């Protein structure tokens, strides 16, 4: 059984925005990551990515293509339910010395609940929480 891989917003943005400083790293690792790991994303990360593509890049067409790809792929979309939200807010309150976003906290909670140790992204917050960066480790 393949290990789970949580794909963070920063990875999706780097993959889809050619101007992103991590674009080459994301495109260069995507095939390996998808063949090595079982991919997961949360609905919050999906929404964050769609918002970036539509509002920051002004690419509604790209946002819709991305959404359609995720929905028809083997990527498991984890839902941020009421319990996850409560745990994420508790985590957010606990780390007053970190600049975690609430979305980051929902990702951490979902990863722990689903025993996902690896992530794809460029956010040091995941490393601070002891998750393993599959992009940097390859």
Give the key terms.
single chain, 138 residues, alpha/beta, Rossmann fold, 5-stranded parallel sheet, 7 helices, 5 strands, 57% helix, globular
Any overview of this molecule?
The longest helix has 14 residues, at 23-36. The protein is built from seven helices and five strands; from the N terminus they run βααβααβααβαβ. The chain is of the alpha/beta class. It has a single domain, classed as 5'-nuclease (Rossmann fold, 3-Layer(aba) Sandwich), CATH 3.40.50. The chain starts with a strand and ends in a 5-residue tail after the last strand. The radius of gyration is 14 Å and the shape is globular. α7 links the parallel β4 and β5. Strands 3-2-1-4-5 form a five-stranded parallel β-sheet.
Describe the secondary structure blueprint for this structure.
Layout: E1 4-7, H1 9-16, H2 23-36, E2 38-42, H3 43-56, H4 60-71, E3 76-78, H5 82-94, H6 102-113, E4 118-120, H7 124-128, E5 132-133
Parallel strand pairs: 1-2, 1-4, 2-3, 4-5
Summarize the structure.
By secondary structure, the protein is α/β, with parallel strands linked by helices.
Terminal CA distance: 19 Å
CATH homologous superfamily title:
5'-nuclease
Order of helices and strands: EHHEHHEHHEHE
| Main sheet strand line-up | 3-2-1-4-5
CATH topology: Rossmann fold
Q: What is the CATH domain class?
A: Alpha Beta
Label the overall shape: globular
Count of runs of 4 or more consecutive helical residues = 7
Rg, Å, rounded? 14 Å
Low-confidence stretches: none
The total beta strand count reads 5
Helix content: 55-70%
Q: Residue-averaged pLDDT, rounded?
A: 95
- Number of self-contained structural domains: 1
* Major sheet description: 5 strands, parallel
CATH architecture: 3-Layer(aba) Sandwich
The proportion of strand residues reads 5-15%
Q: Which structural class do you get from the secondary structure elements?
A: alpha/beta
């Amino acid at each position: 059984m393949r290990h789970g891989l949580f794909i963070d917003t920063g990875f999706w943005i780097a993959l889809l925005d050619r101007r992103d400083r991590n674009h080459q790293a994301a495109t260069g690792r995507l095939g390996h990551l998808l063949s090595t790991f079982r991919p997961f994303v949360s609905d919050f990360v999906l929404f964050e990515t769609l918002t970036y593509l539509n509002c920051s890049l002004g690419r509604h067409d790209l946002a819709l293509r991305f959404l359609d790809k995720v929905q028809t792929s083997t990527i498991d979309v984890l839902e941020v339910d009421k319990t996850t939200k409560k745990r994420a807010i508790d985590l957010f309150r606990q780390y007053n010395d970190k600049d975690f976003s609430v979305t980051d906290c929902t990702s951490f909670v979902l990863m722990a609940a689903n025993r996902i140790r690896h992530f794809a992204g460029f956010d040091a917050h995941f490393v601070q929480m002891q998750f393993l960066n599959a992009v940097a480790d390859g």
